[in-house]
Design brief:
The structure is a homotetramer. Chain A is α/β, with parallel strands linked by helices. The first copy, chain A, has 2 domains: 143 residues, Aspartate Aminotransferase, domain 1, CATH 3.90.1150.10; 235 residues, Type I PLP-dependent aspartate aminotransferase-like (Major domain) (Aspartate Aminotransferase, domain 2), CATH 3.40.640.10. Helices cover 42% and strands 16% of the residues of chain A. The first copy, chain A, has 14 helices and 14 strands. Chain A has a 7-stranded mixed β-sheet with strand order 2-10-9-8-5-3-4, with helices on both faces. A 5-stranded mixed β-sheet of chain A has the order 1-13-14-12-11. In chain A, helix 3 packs across helix 4 and helix 11 packs antiparallel against helix 14. Chain A is globular. The two termini of chain A are 40 Å apart. Chains A and C meet through helix 1 of A and helix 1 of C.
Chain lengths: 402, 402, 402, 402
Amino acid sequence: MSLAHGRPYLAIPGPSVIPDAVLQAMHRPAPNIYEGALPEMVDTMIPDLRYVAQTSGHVGIYICNGHGMWEAALSNVVAEGEKVLVPATGRFGLGWADTAQAMGIEVELLEHDRQSAIDPERVHAALAADKAHRIKAVLAVHVDTSTSVRSDMTALRAVLDDLGHPALLMADCIASLACDEFRMDDWGVDVMISASQKGLMVPPGLGFVFFNDKAAEVRRAMPRVTRYWDWTQRANPEMFYQYFNGTAPTHHLYGLRVSLDMIKAEGMEAIWARHAALAGAIWVACDVWGSAGPLTLNIKDPGLRSHAVTALRLGAPHGKRLREWTAEQTGVTLGLGIGMSEPDDPNGTGFFRLGHMGHVSAHMILGLLGVLETGFAALDIPHAKGGVTAAAQVLAQASARG
Amino acid sequence: MSLAHGRPYLAIPGPSVIPDAVLQAMHRPAPNIYEGALPEMVDTMIPDLRYVAQTSGHVGIYICNGHGMWEAALSNVVAEGEKVLVPATGRFGLGWADTAQAMGIEVELLEHDRQSAIDPERVHAALAADKAHRIKAVLAVHVDTSTSVRSDMTALRAVLDDLGHPALLMADCIASLACDEFRMDDWGVDVMISASQKGLMVPPGLGFVFFNDKAAEVRRAMPRVTRYWDWTQRANPEMFYQYFNGTAPTHHLYGLRVSLDMIKAEGMEAIWARHAALAGAIWVACDVWGSAGPLTLNIKDPGLRSHAVTALRLGAPHGKRLREWTAEQTGVTLGLGIGMSEPDDPNGTGFFRLGHMGHVSAHMILGLLGVLETGFAALDIPHAKGGVTAAAQVLAQASARG
Amino acid sequence: MSLAHGRPYLAIPGPSVIPDAVLQAMHRPAPNIYEGALPEMVDTMIPDLRYVAQTSGHVGIYICNGHGMWEAALSNVVAEGEKVLVPATGRFGLGWADTAQAMGIEVELLEHDRQSAIDPERVHAALAADKAHRIKAVLAVHVDTSTSVRSDMTALRAVLDDLGHPALLMADCIASLACDEFRMDDWGVDVMISASQKGLMVPPGLGFVFFNDKAAEVRRAMPRVTRYWDWTQRANPEMFYQYFNGTAPTHHLYGLRVSLDMIKAEGMEAIWARHAALAGAIWVACDVWGSAGPLTLNIKDPGLRSHAVTALRLGAPHGKRLREWTAEQTGVTLGLGIGMSEPDDPNGTGFFRLGHMGHVSAHMILGLLGVLETGFAALDIPHAKGGVTAAAQVLAQASARG
Amino acid sequence: MSLAHGRPYLAIPGPSVIPDAVLQAMHRPAPNIYEGALPEMVDTMIPDLRYVAQTSGHVGIYICNGHGMWEAALSNVVAEGEKVLVPATGRFGLGWADTAQAMGIEVELLEHDRQSAIDPERVHAALAADKAHRIKAVLAVHVDTSTSVRSDMTALRAVLDDLGHPALLMADCIASLACDEFRMDDWGVDVMISASQKGLMVPPGLGFVFFNDKAAEVRRAMPRVTRYWDWTQRANPEMFYQYFNGTAPTHHLYGLRVSLDMIKAEGMEAIWARHAALAGAIWVACDVWGSAGPLTLNIKDPGLRSHAVTALRLGAPHGKRLREWTAEQTGVTLGLGIGMSEPDDPNGTGFFRLGHMGHVSAHMILGLLGVLETGFAALDIPHAKGGVTAAAQVLAQASARG
């Protein structure tokens, strides 16, 4: 007997759960890509994407994944031989740094431990030491899904402003956009990248870059940008195919149109509040369970925790056992720990992650918590009972406030 | 802010949640209905339907809903002016009786209260009084979704056998098939009807009749059966269109094929055990909540409770408020109470029902329970906390056993 | 090598080609059937269905197929022992008569040969002979898909009016509705039935009855009508479930909503004109081919030919060879001949039919004709070349007129 | 009235018609991208992709469009400052050259007129003049969809071999793969690129590179390749995410799996033969029509014509009128002419193209031809009648041979 025979819940930190309406919209014949309804539809998306990013700046859409967007954004503003500063808080910050290095960019890496947000003081020190202003950009991951830490973009902006340093502030919001609060213009982010498969609730395959006029000027001064990565025509196309430097990603666009409609209908403030409330419920449940057992939240300070993903430590072999049990017995797929390890757990099997981004409701999250509490009991993993009860109280209060 | 923006969970007692694979299979062009793959596919379904009903008897498939199956089954074995005995435990038993009466059939109604299963002693008395054997059939609803009571078919069989009464035992398993244990041949049920949209996990639109040789003989002795309801050719077609007395319900059949594959892969015993475990989790949670508040399970004796639907009383106006709150705030649609009322609640707004039939997992049910506990808290409905915690323990034990 | 690897075209006379948008609309989770969007949506369909039938009368929707609608309509207006007149022009007229007889209704059958429309003079004679007005209804198939003949409903109305005979005029428009012109009120049809899978472009599984006040009065005078077939509540429901006497056919309704939207957007006059033009193109092509070979149109008089289906004779063994060849080599499925035979071809393998109903364009029909001309050549079936060229001229003119 | 109300046929040269089964397979929830069924499925695709390209070489899959693949392939084998030879036969050859230049690569362009295939003698001359072997690669578009010319890869191989020139032979088979015959290994192509939305019948969004050991060596000698374009890990991943340098394009992969299954079931030889036969039917029809009117095939020599796309000239304003008429009146979307013009038609409105690639049957192509002949008649465009008749004869013969 298994209790997993129902609609599965994929609780990994991306790809996230795709709304039925998005999948439905993608199920249609190939359209004309030269004229007609599709080009008109794409034009309508640009202001909506700006709304999601809270910017009046420029938007470029790419056919690629998040790793591709690292390369796309850098290609437009940092040339071979130039330098970037990367305060990395986890695997994804390191990945962006690696992408830069492979492009021939010089990287100054400020590696943080796996439990901390970007330290503005370290960034301040590095930029202050850069008297020649060789650092052309600061690459900051807003939410690193490996550690689930969220870094403060406004603090980085303040550092740059304080020093009068001209470097661009570039943010990776792949895991956070349309989940955690993000205000590109208000926060002074110059370039932001994201992708389709998390808060935007569309299958993987689309990437997005948002940039302001300052970044556009930097682009114009670049010696050379390759055609596929160049954002110039993508952000200001004269003909439809220039949006995508070639054939449009037709079916993803249909899905994205529906997803943007859903986002507009809910509203960014409401979306951020929903994610905050659901994350809060998860945290309180984990705190209860962990009060009499090994479960710990990776990020101690709630103010630094992502509202879209939660990294946890249960210790080997519990983590792996729990993931296998929930998949086989309950229909819930938990996320692997990645980029985490311990001396006696070199592969990090004792870590796991919960994705709670995008199309997630109270029902789905309470079900997830119920499954965890059941799993702890079924597998004799020490814990204090009552995590779901505590979560229910938190959500009841949030709902009453909302 | 609302916490409802995710995949919705329809927790009404039918139509039940449709598996993604079933919907996917139904999304295809119209097929040839005269020859080829479709006729061959339908042939393969008959043994699988027998397996679901645990019978080696005959199977007829109809394009209609459950109410239609009441009429279909009666049409084949009870003629105008003949008599049936209907021990009714709720709205659906009464509905079957009403259908019979509208067909010109004489109905002897044994009405039960809304908290009881069929009383074999009352049936015994009625049949014993029928010295002339005018009662041609006993119409018994296995699970009445209005009250969520489950009646004991074997007890009714024993009554008939004990008296040597020749009446057919006819069971309505619309709400129970592929949820609650049901063994047609072992239990001596002569005619059983069901429909597609509950345990079979397919959209509404198909009905099923299963009947044994004894019932087939009764059919052959009938003066006249209308073409649409006649099960003779449906159960033994010479040409494909006779399966359905005309055009086949093409797309439902594609869905049903997938649903039967899923059922076979899981196995009837495992399906029954899963429903039993999930129902047990719901009951224990309700018991906890009700220990300090108004919530009560409609059926007191757990042995008489359906494993597919649970009828509850919260009292007016709590029931309606809770249903509205879960829909708006959490993405869960609870079932209305139907056929229930109280002196100060003539419309039964204080009652509600939980559907937990078919494609339901631990995640979905624990999420449902979490939502209820959250709702009680948000709406200040008196209750003892900890229902989900108790449910998690029950499921952990069930999982360990299974 | 096969030339069949593309989107298949099912050129059988129903089920017809389902629009992608209809299938897309049906691909969604189960809805609440008690309140909310679904009940509201169904209310909007009633005036649209009236528009399709060109009536201000009553509408009932059933979960069943076309054969079921024969029984449904009769159940409401003709009691056991009463009499109907059935001027049958093919297999479907005979089927309706058979359904009536199985209900205990007396049938006076006016069988026509397989190449003729209903002869109003024979109907006149039969009704004139019915001095006692025992004939309660005349059952007329508008288009019999077996022969592809279309009968004139206004001529039958004139006969009834001329004689002052009170019998109801009942029309089976299963194959013709939303294809051939039909004006229920203007033409004086009292009861009309149809189904979802032809001109309405939705998978099989829904039936429709339209009836006027006169028929409603006849219903009220009936001694008894069974619950499932009774149109009273279906046409005038107080609660949503009464539309369907039980659970609603949820997914078909979503498809039907889209189909009705498409029909309204195109407009009934334009739909009729499109079917007329496409049928005309088929006929002229067949005339060309048949001018030097065995191909003949079953109905000689173009004024009596359906615009939705065309029955043809090619002679054994050509018919069967052609059908097999088009399926294997071109992706086109032709309709079998049904209810047709010849002395040396008792199974009618020399006959075949073309469905051209509902979601059919010039491209699809010209492709069908091209496939036929290719098949004649590939199989060495004698024919004059140039059928498609002639069809193209006809469509060019129709398009210029339209 | 319009005759366009049916399943549309998109006769543009890509994106091509997507099989229903491919769309169906893409309609499913997000999967786990770290372990389980998806990674296993992707492993099975590699040998199938090799089969499609007729190679035993290496395969890399990218999330991008065809233009992205130009950049991807070059990135691996040609560094900034190195040189390529581009014999361009149309817009896409020019586009590849432009992409190379934007990467800082020196381009020697051999521009051909718009009615010719690559001239091996010109290539021979250019390579012979390259005594220093500075030309690192020859970039050859197999089928240029703007002119519909197909160039001979074996002739280019022979030139390279004849001269003992070490340059890589790189082929763009975006429009031809799985349509026109292509044998990578037998023909001596070193690097080949393609994309998902033409012969592979999947929505746009995936690109493919195939390369042999010689090209792999060239890659290893490159000073630097950016992470996203580097084919090393993609073609030989140690972990699943390395296939795609990050998140997998989940839903496209489900579609591709089905598409590859269809291709394997039909077989490459049969696919090539089908495309050849259908193209031949189109040509003969156009020859007939053009024998008494302005229609001309852009490529005179049938041996140089693509089997996947046909470029035609009708002259302004006929071309544009025809395209608009078929879209509005018949449901067929014709391809625009691109990259073509005449002195009195600077925008090339007199040109159009027919896509006949991938999921195309005799029915679809004959319908397309029937629509064209109807359009010529409806718009009074001079032409000789009988094009479809001639096409039918050609297909009849092809079918008999096949």
